[in-house]
Structures are given as structure tokens and as C-alpha cells.
């Protein structure tokens, strides 16, 4: 990120660092005999955090990297299309 001049590199790196600090804190709690519930809570928090991080932070980074290396935006592939997201058929008229 830093070598490409990504504008949000520090913010992105800070977010990853915060997650790693949380993981290390949970490891320490568990090493000291803490309840496994703290690990489950972290897993739930990560499950809630990650989609937004991927959709915004990682997508912005991917777009930046592709634009810098190829001059365009990346192709986005989605595994599943929700009915509410499906394109509407053209009007017949």
C-alpha cells in the first residue's frame, strides 16, 4: 500500500493493526485461563467487521492498485445475487 501511494494506506494499516491487537489480547486472556467466550465474542465481532472492511477498505485498495497498474477499475465478481439486487427486466411497451 505504501509503495503505491495509496491515499488511505495509514488508515487501512491502522485498522489491520487494531484487529491484530485484539487477537493478541484475546490470546493473552486465554493463556491466563480466561473463558473461551472471549474468543467467541472476537469471532462474532470479526464476522460483523469483515464484510464492511472488504466492501470499503479492501475494495478501495483494489481499485487503486488496478487503476495504477492497468489504468482502469477492477472487475468485481459476486458469488450470489440477492433478488433485491437483480436487475429489472426492460419494460415491454
TrEMBL record:
Superkingdom of source: Bacteria
Record field: transmembrane: none
Annotated CDD domains: Hemerythrin
Molecular function, one GO term: metal ion binding
Keywords, comma-separated and alphabetical: Iron, Metal-binding
Family the entry assigns: Belongs to the hemerythrin family.
Name of this chain's protein: Hemerythrin
Organism name: Comamonas thiooxydans
Taxon lineage: Bacteria, Pseudomonadati, Pseudomonadota, Betaproteobacteria, Burkholderiales
